[in-house]
Amino acid sequence: MNEALLIAGMTLLTFGPRYLPLALAGRVRIAPLLEQALRFVPIAVLSAIIAQTTLVRDGQIDANPGNPYLVAALAAGVTAYWSRQLFATVAVGLVVYGAARWFL
Amino acid sequence: MTPVRLFLTGARDTLPLILAAIPFGIVYGALAMSNGLSEWATLAISLFVFAGSAQFIAVTLVASAAALPVILLTVFVVNLRHMLYAASLMPWVSGLPQRLRALMAFWLTDETYAVVTNRIGKDPELTGLPWYYCGSALAMYGNWVFCTWLGITVGQQLPSLTDWGLDVAMVVAFIGIVVPALRNRAQWACALSAGTCALLTHDWPHQSGLLFTAVVAIAIGVTLERRAANTARETLV
Fold first, then answer.
1. Contact between residue B53 and residue B80 where contact means Cβ atoms under 8 Å apart
2. Are residues B155 and B193 in the same domain?
3. Which of A5, A12, A13, A81 to mutate to test the interface with B (most CBs of B within 10 A)?
4. Nearest one of B3, B107, B134 to B50, comparing CA atoms
5. Measured between CB atoms, which of B45, B86, B213 is closest to A7?
6. Which residues of A touch B16 (CB under 8 A)?
7. Where are the domains of chain A?
8. Which structural domain, as residue segments, surrounds residue B84?
9. What is the per-residue pLDDT across B136-192, written as a single tens digit (0 to 9) for each?
10. pLDDT at A42
């Protein structure tokens, strides 16, 4: 494996997709439908990452109530819904996770 | 807010995600070394590429003696979701100099994107967004490079780091960002379908399921939003 080539290639193929839309901003018009779609990106991708990190353990779906990630995620979800506070959500989530690992 | 305050606020708001990234940085460093990469290459990838999941997949492929084009193609596919992120940030960077945009692009990660869109959602008129963005991004970057170095130097002596469960900090922080952003049926449907689809496609190779999920969930959200807008227009008439 040529390490220099690996690093150069990875750098280009990571930076390219990240930079291209930012470089074009203000120079191209985005179609209204595309703009509407892009507003859903944070919700769609973050929800997908939340679901996978919470429920997939070692390549298997673990939805049983003893999964501490699931318990913490539910507690965080309820806290976020009522408080709408990021800090409170993280604090409750971490405490409940610790408790769930300890007791379950 | 002054630029310095914005910068520090950006870094502070990213703290839970930094905590969650620590074991992954260390494990990446240790894994890359044990997979046969040199110390400098392991660190250089974190310094120049700076893409958590793509780095993991790349060094795993290095260990399985995959050909260079295969590794690079995989890295490209894994990074395509960042193109979606960048596209959705377009309205906020159109007035910025290209050099600053390039820096922001280099530092674009799941974590900084989540924190920044959360901030934009709360305060759409925010001026000085680049300061906030760079505060968040530099904190992530510094932490990632430092943890990679830790992984290279002491990683082999720290067994089963991922069992500590620090990634739960990322999960609860993302929940704290997504849930308050759900204000109508289209957004709820988008979130719930994304979660479901991500579970159904979790075993697709190289996170292609994540990309597929994003497309499906966005399509569902847009369809419902358009339908709701049509219904509202009809009741008005």
1. no
2. no
3. A13
4. B107
5. B45
6. 90
7. 1-31, 40-103
8. 3-167
9. 999 999 999 999 999 999 877 766 665 677 788 889 999 999 999 999 999 999 999
10. 92
